[in-house]
Amino acid sequence: xxxxxxxxxxxxxxxxxxxxxxxxxxxxxxxxxxxxxxxxxxxxxxxxxxxxxxxxxxxxxxxxxxxxxxxxxxxxxxxxxxxxxxxxxxxxxxxxxxxxxx
Length: 102
What we know:
Elements: H1 2-10, H2 17-57, E1 61-68, E2 73-87, E3 90-99
Antiparallel strand pairs: 1-2, 2-3
């Protein structure tokens, strides 16, 4: 009986400590990637919400647009508006801009 117990201890079945640590490291890195994806998704949802609130309220958004090339750059003020337009049976949002672009 005692000899059977010693033979069981000598067998190398199961996982080693190194394999367990590597598996834990892989799981931890996967969770970090998932957390980063959640933060990025939250930022994208906020941006989409800002855009959709603009579309629903029909308000305007103003900003600066910069066009540049190797030799010069120009800034322009632009305002973007939204309004509903009916076309046959459907109503859709139309976006247009106004600015000092010449």
